[in-house]
Amino acid sequence: MTKDLGKLWAERMTKAERDQSFPDSEPRDAATLMLIDRSGRKPKVLLGRRHANHKFMPGKFVFPGGRIEPLDRLMPAVSELHPGAQQKLIERVAKPDAEFARAFALAAVRETAEETGLLLGVKRNQPPTVPGEIWTEFAKACVHPDLGQIHFIARAVTPPRRPRRFDTRFLTADASAIAHTIAGVVGPDSELVELTWVPIEDAAHLDVPTITGIVLEELLARVEGGMGHELPVPFYFMIEQQYFRELL
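Given the sequence above, the corresponding structure tokens read:
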């Protein structure tokens, strides 16, 4: 990827219309997961459409994800994050440690299960020892998270003075990591009313938030670059009404 292209994406983020008239707040740590299906000629990514009655991004196509919960740090896994991904996940944070890094990956896996019914990991005869109720479905299905399958693609902080602010890590895993599916999670009365697999290069044409469109392009560039953990991770943040893109 050229430096000019990265600068262009930062300029697109800056020009995006947004109401910054709300009281300011500290961004909350969050993680989201982009599932990729590379079994066909064109790699596809999974997106879910949010319910039209939601106050936050109604009707938009998004990746499953959400805030880190305290118990996410304690969930065991059959493998840990690649050292390169782990290091980049805790760059530019106040108190970096390995547990904090793995909490992002585990939060993304848990939120994907809660919002889509897709449990990622390895299915075994014995259930994992879960730290609390929010991980119960993994124990029921005998699915153990496998953090070694997770790649770190991008990081973005919501601009100041927005109604909700997040410091989000965008992660990805291959669709082959789906070990179990819970039926009935997605539907007309759920947070996500539908799921769709879309070629990555076409997904940005859906009704997606600006940052989602940018990260989809970052994801495509990463796939075309070979998906190596050593590749730099872009970090988007705003200073004085201007977005910047730095590499971690």
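Helices lie at 3-15, 83-89, 98-116, 136-141, 200-203, 210-224. Try to locate this feature in the token string yourself.
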